Structure formats: structure tokens, C-alpha cells
């Protein structure tokens, strides 16, 4: 059924149809028995998939990656689709429009997306207000970043503002320094700036009555030496874990014609083309940390086999984004059934 619907949806610009579909999902959820019907159709009912990771209990290991519900507008509806957890954001202190449109592109031949959204969001305060009405039983992560106009030397202030604003509304945090779509953001992955940022957030966290897990989201384009630095910093700052990986700036091996890729221009590539590299990064971190760093794996997960590949490489949890677009609302149920088998 979904392949037919997808063919129709893919006739429309991807960003426009994303919001139309989510608004339609919200309307359906508000109808009498609408939420119950969604849960009956798509919620995972497979037992035995609970996970205890960084002090939290996940009903299943399949989450929704950041970027899909940036502003926490649809968490109730997404909860009805069976996700074990939902990560909102990336959020910034001030609202910002993001980059010029068009900024989201499909590559159907590669089962991929290219985006250069640029942290478009309504600001962290708006999301924090919505989270006061969050559904019970759903674990929510808060992915935080800096505003485009904030220079890197002041980036810590932006992350601090987001941390304080979201603290009461989320279960864990993800520090995003790996998006390719905010100028100079990835420079914060360099060893000393990153250490200082993470240590500052951990110091703030320690002052809270109940510290929340803080994770770091990294790019797939890091060298082994840079990954070694990441491992050392995460361990020395006692971070709760790593999200591996964000989108890639690489374009090798794509089936989409090169002239089409060139016409799209800059942006982060996600989906099937990043699956292998994402798994390599997960495996490298797991092996070289002695399995001591919990990892949320994201990148090219469409099926239960894809998810199992990440778990076998050392991940504790997985997230989907592009797979959700291509496989539809049954993706969580199908992955969980496959993992149980």
C-alpha cells in the first residue's frame, strides 16, 4: 500500500509534502479513535525488545532521528507510530529560517536525501513550551545547536541556553556539532573546542538535581585519528554516549546522474549511501572504546537487517530518518518484528 502512496507523495516538493503529511497525521490523530487506530495499525507490539541504555528504559531500540520533528510539534502523533524514542531539534536559542529553499532533495535511485536545511526552527523556547504537553511513556531527546549568526567563539553560550531551556522537557541531550549546513559548525569537532564545550555542559549538568544523559552527534567524514580524539574526549568528560552518524558531504558511488547531483549543490547526504560508513564508524568506536561508550546508530537503516547490522557493530539503539521517508509508517513495526525473529 505505501509504495503506491509514496509514488504520489514523491510527485510533490519534499519539504512541502513533509509538512502536509504531518498536518494530516495530526488531524487523523485528533479524530475520535484516531490515535487508537494509528496505534493498532503501526505501533510495535513485539515483546522482549526493551533496552536499558544510559539510565533510561526504551520500550524498543528504534527511534526517530533529529530533523524530522524539529520543533516538537508532532510528538504525540509519532508516538502512535511505535517509536521507542523521538529526538527533536536541532534547536537553537533564537528562531531562524534556515537556508534558502529549495533545500531538501530526493535521490530515489539511491534511496537517499540531500538536505541543507540550516537548523530552521522556531527557537528553543517554543519547543520547551510544547514539551509541557508531551505524551507519557515516550522518551524524548533534545538535539541542540548554535544559531547561524553566533560565532564559534561564542557557541558555548548558545548550547548552554538550549540546555537550560530544554532540561525539564527532555530525557537526554544530543550536542550537534556535525551538521554540514551551518557555516563553520564542524570546526567545533576539533579536539580542544569540543572538549571545552562538552565539559562546560557537563559542569552545568552536574549542578542539576537529576543530571540528564548528554550525547555527542558526530559526522561520518571523520578520520580514524579524529575518531580517536572523539573517544578520548567523550570518556574524559564522562559523556553518556555518541550518536553516529550525521549526514555526509561525500558524493562517491551514487546512481543518480552526476549532472543532477551538481545541480542540487551543497548539503548533507543521508540514506542508503551512508549506511556502510555509518556502520564502520559505529564499529570503530565500539572496538576502540572497549565497548564502554553507548552508541545510537543512524545512517541508512531501512530494514531489520540494516538495524541488526548496526547493533552487531556495537550500537545500543538505532534511529531512522530517510528510511522513514522511503519505507513509510510501518517501518518501526517491521524492524521490531525482524529484530525479534
From TrEMBL:
<feature type="binding site">
    <location>
        <begin position="246"/>
        <end position="247"/>
    </location>
    <ligand>
        <name>substrate</name>
    </ligand>
</feature>
<keyword id="KW-1003">Cell membrane</keyword>
<dbReference type="Pfam" id="PF01180">
    <property type="entry name" value="DHO_dh"/>
</dbReference>
<keyword id="KW-0285">Flavoprotein</keyword>
<feature type="binding site">
    <location>
        <position position="271"/>
    </location>
    <ligand>
        <name>FMN</name>
    </ligand>
</feature>
<feature type="binding site">
    <location>
        <position position="217"/>
    </location>
    <ligand>
        <name>FMN</name>
    </ligand>
</feature>
<feature type="domain" description="Dihydroorotate dehydrogenase catalytic">
    <location>
        <begin position="49"/>
        <end position="340"/>
    </location>
</feature>
<feature type="binding site">
    <location>
        <position position="181"/>
    </location>
    <ligand>
        <name>substrate</name>
    </ligand>
</feature>
<feature type="binding site">
    <location>
        <position position="300"/>
    </location>
    <ligand>
        <name>FMN</name>
    </ligand>
</feature>
<feature type="binding site">
    <location>
        <position position="176"/>
    </location>
    <ligand>
        <name>FMN</name>
    </ligand>
</feature>
<feature type="binding site">
    <location>
        <position position="70"/>
    </location>
    <ligand>
        <name>substrate</name>
    </ligand>
</feature>
<dbReference type="InterPro" id="IPR050074">
    <property type="entry name" value="DHO_dehydrogenase"/>
</dbReference>
<feature type="binding site">
    <location>
        <begin position="115"/>
        <end position="119"/>
    </location>
    <ligand>
        <name>substrate</name>
    </ligand>
</feature>
<dbReference type="InterPro" id="IPR012135">
    <property type="entry name" value="Dihydroorotate_DH_1_2"/>
</dbReference>
<feature type="binding site">
    <location>
        <position position="143"/>
    </location>
    <ligand>
        <name>FMN</name>
    </ligand>
</feature>
<comment type="function">
    <text>Catalyzes the conversion of dihydroorotate to orotate with quinone as electron acceptor.</text>
</comment>
<feature type="binding site">
    <location>
        <position position="245"/>
    </location>
    <ligand>
        <name>FMN</name>
    </ligand>
</feature>
<dbReference type="InterPro" id="IPR005720">
    <property type="entry name" value="Dihydroorotate_DH_cat"/>
</dbReference>
<dbReference type="GO" id="GO:0044205">
    <property type="term" value="P:'de novo' UMP biosynthetic process"/>
</dbReference>
<dbReference type="GO" id="GO:0106430">
    <property type="term" value="F:dihydroorotate dehydrogenase (quinone) activity"/>
</dbReference>
<dbReference type="GO" id="GO:0006207">
    <property type="term" value="P:'de novo' pyrimidine nucleobase biosynthetic process"/>
</dbReference>
<feature type="binding site">
    <location>
        <begin position="66"/>
        <end position="70"/>
    </location>
    <ligand>
        <name>FMN</name>
    </ligand>
</feature>
<comment type="subunit">
    <text>Monomer.</text>
</comment>
<comment type="similarity">
    <text>Belongs to the dihydroorotate dehydrogenase family. Type 2 subfamily.</text>
</comment>
<feature type="binding site">
    <location>
        <position position="90"/>
    </location>
    <ligand>
        <name>FMN</name>
    </ligand>
</feature>
<keyword id="KW-0472">Membrane</keyword>
<keyword id="KW-0665">Pyrimidine biosynthesis</keyword>
<comment type="pathway">
    <text>Pyrimidine metabolism; UMP biosynthesis via de novo pathway; orotate from (S)-dihydroorotate (quinone route): step 1/1.</text>
</comment>
<keyword id="KW-0288">FMN</keyword>
<dbReference type="GO" id="GO:0005737">
    <property type="term" value="C:cytoplasm"/>
</dbReference>
<feature type="active site" description="Nucleophile">
    <location>
        <position position="179"/>
    </location>
</feature>
<dbReference type="InterPro" id="IPR001295">
    <property type="entry name" value="Dihydroorotate_DH_CS"/>
</dbReference>
<dbReference type="InterPro" id="IPR005719">
    <property type="entry name" value="Dihydroorotate_DH_2"/>
</dbReference>
<dbReference type="InterPro" id="IPR013785">
    <property type="entry name" value="Aldolase_TIM"/>
</dbReference>
<feature type="binding site">
    <location>
        <begin position="321"/>
        <end position="322"/>
    </location>
    <ligand>
        <name>FMN</name>
    </ligand>
</feature>
<protein>
    <recommendedName>
        <fullName>Dihydroorotate dehydrogenase (quinone)</fullName>
        <ecNumber>1.3.5.2</ecNumber>
    </recommendedName>
</protein>
<feature type="binding site">
    <location>
        <position position="176"/>
    </location>
    <ligand>
        <name>substrate</name>
    </ligand>
</feature>
<keyword id="KW-0560">Oxidoreductase</keyword>
<dbReference type="GO" id="GO:0005886">
    <property type="term" value="C:plasma membrane"/>
</dbReference>
Amino acid at each position: 500500500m505505501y509504495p503506491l502512496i509514496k509514488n504520489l507523495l514523491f510527485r510533490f516538493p519534499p519539504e512541502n509534502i513533509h509538512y502536509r503529511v504531518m498536518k494530516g497525521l495530526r488531524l487523523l490523530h485528533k479524530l475520535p479513535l484516531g490515535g487508537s487506530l494509528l496505534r493498532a495499525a503501526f505501533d510495535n507490539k513485539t515483546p522482549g525488545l526493551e533496552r536499558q541504555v544510559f539510565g533510561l528504559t526504551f520500550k524498543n531500540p528504534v527511534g526517530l532521528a533529529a530533523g524530522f520533528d524539529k520543533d516538537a510539534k508532532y510528538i504525540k502523533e509519532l508516538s502512535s507510530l511505535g517509536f521507542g524514542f523521538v529526538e527533536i531539534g536541532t534547536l537553537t536559542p533564537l528562531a531562524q529560517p534556515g537556508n534558502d529553499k529549495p533545500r531538501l532533495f530526493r535521490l530515489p535511485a539511491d534511496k537517499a536525501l540531500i538536505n541543507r536545511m540550516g537548523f530552521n526552527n522556531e527557537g528553543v523556547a517554543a519547543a520547551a513550551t510544547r514539551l509541557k504537553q508531551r505524551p507519557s511513556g515516550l522518551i524524548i531527546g533534545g538535539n541542540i545547536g548554535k544559531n547561524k549568526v553566533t560565532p564559534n567563539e561564542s557557541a558555548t553560550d548558545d548550547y548552554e541556553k538550549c540546555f537550560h531551556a530544554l532540561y525539564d522537557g527532555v530525557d537526554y541531550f544530543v550536542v550537534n556539532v556535525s551538521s554540514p549546513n551551518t557555516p563553520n559548525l564542524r570546526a567545533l569537532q576539533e579536539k580542544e573546542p569540543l572538549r571545552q564545550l562538552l565539559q562546560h555542559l557537563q559542569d552545568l549538568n552536574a549542578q542539576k538535581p537529576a543530571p540528564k544523559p548528554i550525547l555527542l552527534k558526530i559526522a561520518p567524514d571523520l578520520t580514524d585519528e579524529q575518531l580517536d580524539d572523539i573517544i578520548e574526549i567523550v570518556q574524559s568528560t564522562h559523556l553518556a554516549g555518541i550518536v553516529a552518524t550525521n549526514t555526509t558531504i561525500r558524493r562517491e558511488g551514487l546512481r543518480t546522474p552526476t549532472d543532477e547531483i551538481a545541480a542540487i549543490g551543497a548539503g548533507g547526504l543521508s540514506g542508503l549511501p551512508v549506511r556502510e560508513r555509518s556502520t564502520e564508524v559505529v564499529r570503530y568506536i565500539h572496538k576502540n572504546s572497549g565497548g564502554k561508550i553507548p552508541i545510537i546508530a543512524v545512517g541508512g537503516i531501512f530494514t531489520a537487517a540494516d538495524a541488526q547490522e548496526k547493533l552487531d557493530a556495537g550500537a545500543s539503539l538505532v534511529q531512522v530518518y530517510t528510511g522513514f521517508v522511503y519505507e513509510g509508517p510501518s517501518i518501526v513495526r517491521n524492524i521490531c518484528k525482524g529484530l525479534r525473529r
